[in-house]
Amino acid sequence: MKKTIGIALALVAVLALAFVGYRYLSTHREGTISSPDGVQEIVPMTDAAETAPDTARLETGETAEDYTAPDFIAYTLTGEAARLSDYAGKPVVINFWATWCPPCRQELPGFENAWQQYGDDVVFLMVECGGESVDEVESFIAEGGYTFPVYVDSDGSGAAAYGINAIPVTALVDAEGNLFTYQVGAVEEDSLRAAIDLLLNA
After folding, report:
1. What is the pTM of this model?
2. 59 and 8 in one domain?
3. Is the dihedral of CA 57, 61, 64, 69 positive or negative?
4. In terms of DSSP bridges, do strands 81-83 and 179-184 run parallel, antiparallel, or are they unpaired?
5. What is the number of domains present in the chain?
6. Which domain, by its residues, includes 37?
């Protein structure tokens, strides 16, 4: 009898651990979609690649003001301040990344290719937020042969504005300054290009 009770308790413990593990992985896996504070559900970039332009936007039912992309300041590698709001009227791709982040390194070539293709039509804000020095970031960019515009989130205002606690994070902002898609985790190049195409045709 005691042996049966012991086996039953062990089985319950294993099931409980499995459930907790599942919940953890389902909310912390790469590619998890989340939202900045004050923003409702946003269509994932990977899903936006398969949707029509009118459904790729944020969920309806709220006014456009509810989905205004949070403004923030980042700095060029020469120390000049730039705000997201400086680019009002233009679609923007924001990517928060770090030189030491493996998923960031994985997706950067795709962003370089997208920048080469869309750079005349879309503003790219490639924001390094890993706490590296400007010299370290410059060295990393030169070594990788990247030509996209690079900024540093030296005061953490960008990470704070977008509620970032994991990187990479990519946000697409439409010409009216509203969030279009937002993804936590590395973005595949094909999904990025498809989402940008939807952004430009929205």
Report:
1. 0.71
2. no
3. negative
4. unpaired
5. 2
6. 31-201
